[in-house]
Amino acid sequence: GAVVSQHPSRVICKSGTSVKIECRSLDFQATTMFWYRQFPKQSLMLMATSNEGSKATYEQGVEKDKFLINHASLTLSTLTVTSAHPEDSSFYICSAIAEPPSREQYFGPGTRLTVT
Amino acid sequence: GENVEQHPSTLSVQEGDSAVIKCTYSDSASNYFPWYKQELGKRPQLIIDIRSNVGEKKDQRIAVTLNKTAKHFSLHITETQPEDSAVYFCAAIWSNDYKLSFGAGTTVTVRA
After folding, report:
1. Among A29, A37, A62, B107, which is most exposed with the fewest C-beta within 10 angstroms?
2. Interval B47-59 mean pLDDT
């Protein structure tokens, strides 16, 4: 149980375009999801916390107007990278909490974004 | 926010030997400490976790110890095998919510 999927797994886009990444909890409802970014050979850095039915909470240094997060249902959160630039190329991973107060986060398989 | 430091950054061990990775954290309110294994291009996989009311936890060849007073926790892998080669991350829950702060990672290489 507790499976999280992401789509697409890989995407290549041109500089200046926008890309949407979906994160779905397949067999549970997730009131809270998280979005991380991971550059090569580095750790996971939390970008934002996505709460169903409310605005996302962004970490310091993450531009909310550039990384749009929508959590419209208990099983889906989306991250849209707007006006993407080559420096946005990274591995984006989402996670979800299945049953608070359980602290375990279930991770999606990640999306490799390459901006040319 | 929570600051998690992890050492060493790389670790090479002979197959069959033990591997130890150490982490420290800054937020004394942290109460959940998971360890993840990540293979190249894949998602992090939870391998073991420990909560603050426990000092040690073991699962087959993997064990984790927690010293709340010193604010450090360690991962121990015994009888290492080539398939244990991966990047390992420690993490700690940050503040009173569910946010995870990750260590910088340890690249473990098990030599056959």
Report:
1. A29
2. 92
- pLDDT exceeds cutoff 80 at B95: no
Q: Residue B66 pairs with which residues in a beta bridge?
A: B73
pLDDT, chain A, mean: 93
Query: Least CB-CB distance to A44: which of B41, B51, B102?
Result: B102
Q: Say whether residue B70 is in contact with chain A using an 8 A CB cutoff.
A: no
Residue spans of beta strands (DSSP E) within chain B: 4-7, 10-14, 19-25, 32-38, 45-51, 56-59, 62-67, 72-77, 86-94, 99-102, 106-111
**Measured between CB atoms, does B35 come within 8 Å of chain A?**
no
B41 at the A interface (CB within 8 A)?
A: yes
pLDDT at B100: 92
pLDDT at A19 over 90: yes
Task: Give dist(CA B26, CA B2) in Å, integer.
Answer: 6
* pLDDT recorded at residue A49: 94
Which residues in chain B have their CB less than 8 angstroms from residue A44's CB?
44, 89, 100, 102
Of B43, B45, B93, which is closest to A103 when you measure between CB atoms? B93
Q: What are the DSSP calls for A50-63, one per residue?
A: EETTS--EEPTT--
Cross-chain residue pair A109–B101, CB shorter than 8 Å: no
